[in-house]
C-alpha cells in the first residue's frame, strides 16, 4: 500500500516529526528555564514531556518551506512570519478558552497584543534555520533506521498517551472542589515521566552552566595574572635601563623614561577611575 504524501513527506513522517519536535521543544523550554531560574521547571501546557506548539510549528515550516531550502534568507523570513502567526493564534485561543495568558510579551516593544514580538520572531526564524539545515537531516536519518512496524506502534502509543494527557489536563483545568484534587493526583502520575526526564536534563544543564562560569572565572584570573607578570617584567626592565651606563651618560634619557612612566601611571589611574564609574 502506497504511503500518502503531503509535499515531500509521508503522513507517517509528519506524525513522527510532530512528536519528535514536540519533545525537543519541551527539552529546550526546560533548558531555558534552568538557565534562567537555576532549577528544574516542568514547562508546557500538558503533563508529558511535549510542547505541541513546537511540533506544529516545526512540521508546518518543513512542509511549507522545504521547497525553498536553497534560498537561505527566504526560509528565515517565511519561518519567522509563520511561527509568529502560529504563536499568536495559539496564545489568543488559549486565553479565550482558559481566561489566562500562557505567555506574555506585553513589556516588550512593538508587541502584538502580548502574544508576539519582533525579538521572538527573529528567534523563531533563527531556530527554524537550525531545524531545516541541521536538525532535520539528523531526524530523517533516525526515522529511516526505525522499522516501519515498530515506528507505527511507537506512534500509536505516543498518540494515545497524548490524547489521555490532553483529556485529563482539560478536566483538571475545568474541575472544581474534590474532583480537582482527584484529577490533580492523576495528572501528578502522568507527570512522573516528564519530571524524571526533565530533572536529568535540568541537572546536566546546571552543571554545564556552572562549569562554563568556572572556566570564565579561571580565564579572568589567568589574564589578571599575566597582566601582573607583564607589569613586573616591565618595571624590572625599566629599572635596569634607568641604572644602565647609557642613562648615566645621557641624563636626558632618564628624564624621558621618567615622563613615560608618569604617562603610564596616569593612564592606569584613568582606567581604574572608569571601572569604578
From TrEMBL:
<dbReference type="InterPro" id="IPR010540">
    <property type="entry name" value="CmpB_TMEM229"/>
</dbReference>
<keyword id="KW-0812">Transmembrane</keyword>
<protein>
    <submittedName>
        <fullName>ABC transporter permease</fullName>
    </submittedName>
</protein>
<feature type="transmembrane region" description="Helical">
    <location>
        <begin position="115"/>
        <end position="136"/>
    </location>
</feature>
<keyword id="KW-0472">Membrane</keyword>
<keyword id="KW-1133">Transmembrane helix</keyword>
<feature type="transmembrane region" description="Helical">
    <location>
        <begin position="148"/>
        <end position="171"/>
    </location>
</feature>
<feature type="transmembrane region" description="Helical">
    <location>
        <begin position="12"/>
        <end position="33"/>
    </location>
</feature>
<feature type="transmembrane region" description="Helical">
    <location>
        <begin position="72"/>
        <end position="94"/>
    </location>
</feature>
<dbReference type="Pfam" id="PF06541">
    <property type="entry name" value="ABC_trans_CmpB"/>
</dbReference>
<feature type="region of interest" description="Disordered">
    <location>
        <begin position="257"/>
        <end position="277"/>
    </location>
</feature>
<feature type="transmembrane region" description="Helical">
    <location>
        <begin position="45"/>
        <end position="66"/>
    </location>
</feature>
Amino acid at each position: 500500500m502506497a504511503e500518502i504524501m503531503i509535499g515531500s513527506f509521508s503522513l507517517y513522517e509528519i506524525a513522527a516529526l510532530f512528536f519528535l519536535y514536540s519533545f525537543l521543544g519541551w527539552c529546550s523550554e526546560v533548558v531555558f528555564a534552568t538557565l534562567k531560574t537555576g532549577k528544574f521547571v516542568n514547562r508546557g501546557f500538558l503533563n508529558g514531556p511535549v510542547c505541541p506548539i513546537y511540533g506544529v510549528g516545526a512540521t508546518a515550516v518543513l512542509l511549507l518551506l522545504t521547497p525553498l531550502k536553497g534560498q537561505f534568507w527566504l526560509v528565515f523570513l517565511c519561518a519567522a512570519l509563520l511561527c509568529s502567526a502560529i504563536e499568536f493564534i495559539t496564545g489568543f485561543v488559549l486565553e479565550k478558552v482558559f481566561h489566562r495568558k500562557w505567555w506574555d510579551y506585553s513589556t516588550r516593544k512593538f508587541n502584538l497584543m502580548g502574544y508576539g514580538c519582533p525579538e521572538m520572531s527573529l528567534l523563531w526564524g533563527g531556530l527554524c534555520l537550525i531545524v531545516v539545515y541541521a536538525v532535520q537531516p539528523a531526524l530523517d536519518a533516525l526515522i529511516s533506521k526505525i522499522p516501519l512496524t515498530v515506528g507505527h506502534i511507537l506512534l500509536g502509543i505516543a498518540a494515545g498517551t497524548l490524547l489521555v494527557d490532553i483529556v485529563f489536563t482539560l478536566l483538571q483545568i475545568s474541575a472544581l472542589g474534590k474532583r480537582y484534587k482527584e484529577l490533580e493526583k492523576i495528572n501528578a502520575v502522568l507527570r512522573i515521566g516528564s519530571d524524571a526526564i526533565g530533572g536529568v536534563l535540568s541537572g546536566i544543564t546546571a552543571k554545564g552552566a556552572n562549569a562554563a562560569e568556572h572556566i570564565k572565572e579561571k580565564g579572568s584570573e589567568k589574564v589578571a595574572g599575566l597582566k601582573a607578570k607583564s607589569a613586573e617584567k616591565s618595571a624590572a626592565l625599566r629599572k635596569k635601563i634607568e641604572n644602565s651606563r647609557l642613562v648615566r651618560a645621557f641624563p636626558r634619557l632618564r628624564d624621558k623614561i621618567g615622563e613615560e612612566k608618569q604617562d603610564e601611571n596616569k593612564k592606569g589611574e584613568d582606567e581604574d577611575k572608569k571601572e569604578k564609574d
